Structure formats: structure tokens, C-alpha cells
């Protein structure tokens, strides 16, 4: 009888966590995972200290993993845009898009090279880029200024300022 109640409570708690996670977004994944693990382990062991410790550990691991994934997605997006900038001449523009393996965070827009910065140390290009959201009449564009520099034969993202606003603390 006791085990059946525990399973029903755990299932109800799991549903509440999933619903809250869907409403709150990715920034809360670690907190919800830690809370779920802490409640479940605390109930199984009947020791709240064990539940608390496991919950903190799961939250830290989940947060680190989530940040790692988003940093890799951000790097892929920046590398794609930098490669396009490297192939364009001043005044030229081209569409850009990034599609991740998981259909989340896929972005697209336009990039236009505005200036060449050629010094004895480095070759860079300054560009404006848009990030488009919505479709048709609902299309909204946010514009950013960025730079890309050539390192050997590869163009790399060289500006931190637009990234701080665009990608938050992941930069």
C-alpha cells in the first residue's frame, strides 16, 4: 500500500515538473531536474540530507550539460556566419541559417559585409547581420554589428559585444 502511494505521488510530481518545465523554458531545466531527483531520492532513502545532496548534484550536472550544449550551438551559429562573411566582398549580402540536430534554436537571417579591415597582423571584415523571427507579415528582424577575422584559411567570429546581448551569458 505504501509503495503504491509513493509511485502515485512521484508520478504526479513528475507531471507537475514536466508542465512547469514546459512553461518556464530551458533556464530552469537544472533546477527542476535537481528538485525531482532530490524529492525522489529523499523519499526512497527517508533521509532529507541525502535527497538535498543528490538534488544539488543533479542540478549542477544538468546546468553544466545544458550550458555546454548551448555553447556548442552558439559556436556553430557563429562559425556559419563567419564563414559567409569570409566569402563575401564589401557590399555583398547573403542569407544565413543554422539547423541543429534537435529542432530547437534554429535561426536564420541575412549578413552583409560593410568594411574590410586589413592590417599587417590580421585580415578582418565588419558586417551587419540580422536574426529573423516570424514569417510573412509577422517577420521581425533584429540587426547586429559583428566582425570576423581570418585565422589561417578559416574565418572565425571576432566580436564579443553583439554576442553578449544576443546569446546572454553563454559567450
From TrEMBL:
Keywords: Signal. Residues 1-24 form the signal peptide. The lineage of its organism: Bacteria, Pseudomonadati, Pseudomonadota, Betaproteobacteria, Burkholderiales. This is Lipoprotein. PROSITE patterns: PROKAR_LIPOPROTEIN (PS51257). It comes from Collimonas arenae.
Amino acid at each position: 500500500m505504501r509503495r503504491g502511494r509513493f509511485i502515485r505521488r512521484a508520478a504526479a510530481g513528475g507531471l507537475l515538473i514536466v508542465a512547469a518545465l514546459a512553461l518556464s523554458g530551458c533556464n530552469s531545466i537544472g533546477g527542476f531536474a535537481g528538485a525531482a531527483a532530490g524529492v525522489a531520492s529523499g523519499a526512497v532513502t527517508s533521509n532529507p540530507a541525502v535527497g538535498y545532496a543528490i538534488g544539488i548534484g543533479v542540478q549542477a550536472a544538468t546546468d553544466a550539460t545544458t550550458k555546454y550544449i548551448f555553447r556548442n550551438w552558439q559556436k556553430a551559429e557563429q562559425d556559419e556566419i563567419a564563414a559567409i562573411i569570409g566569402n563575401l566582398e564589401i557590399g555583398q549580402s547573403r542569407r544565413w541559417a543554422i539547423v541543429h540536430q534537435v529542432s530547437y534554436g534554429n535561426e536564420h537571417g541575412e549578413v552583409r559585409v560593410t568594411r574590410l579591415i586589413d592590417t599587417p597582423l590580421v585580415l578582418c571584415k565588419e558586417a551587419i547581420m540580422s536574426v529573423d523571427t516570424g514569417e510573412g507579415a509577422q517577420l521581425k528582424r533584429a540587426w547586429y554589428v559583428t566582425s570576423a577575422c581570418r585565422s589561417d584559411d578559416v574565418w572565425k567570429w571576432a566580436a564579443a559585444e553583439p554576442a553578449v546581448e544576443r546569446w546572454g551569458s553563454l559567450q
